[in-house]
Design a protein that fits this description.
The protein is mostly helical and 141 residues long. 78% of the residues lie in helices and 0% in strands. The protein contains 5 helices and no strands. It has helices spanning 3-31, 39-61, 66-93, 100-107, 114-135. Helix 1 runs antiparallel to helix 5 (114-135). It starts with a helix and ends in a 6-residue tail after the last helix.
């Protein structure tokens, strides 16, 4: 796979990851709302966590050249964080043994935070690099 093709696939996976973020962010925030968390948040959160984990796995398995290894690994770390946040939010919201510490932690949840911003910024950098490679004529066609 050429360097351009690697960048294009990496950009497409990052597009998927960024597209999944608003729902993940909404679910984490929903877990932090006062009062009982609706059961559909658990169902939707489990689906979203599986989606994020699947994208992260595809990123991990993506063969890239030396020049893209750090970018791919950073994308995996940031997406793994999103997955972890969804799982932890669900664990806090749907624990069978809620205590005051657990409830305080749950109520502090308000979304994915700065790592989500970093994933979006990384996607933009990769997208620009892929477009530049295509403009230089190193892309397909």
């Amino acid at each position: 796979m050429s360097s351009y093709e690697q960048l294009a696939v990496l950009a497409a996976l990052l597009d998927e990851a960024v597209a999944a973020q608003p729902e993940a962010d909404r679910l984490v925030a929903a877990c932090g709302e006062p009062g009982p968390v609706p059961a559909e948040v658990a169902r939707d959160g489990s689906r979203q966590a599986a989606l994020l984990q699947g994208i992260a796995q595809r990123l991990r398995e993506l063969p890239v050249g030396r020049e893209q290894v750090d970018v791919r690994d950073e994308a995996v770390r940031l997406l793994t964080y999103d997955h972890w946040m969804v799982r932890q939010a669900l664990n806090l919201a749907f624990t069978g043994n809620a205590d005051t510490r657990t409830e305080a932690a749950r109520l502090s949840l308000n979304g994915l935070g700065a790592p989500a911003d970093r994933l979006r910024a990384l996607r933009e950098r990769v997208r620009r690099a892929a477009e530049a490679a295509a403009d230089r004529g190193t892309g397909p066609g």
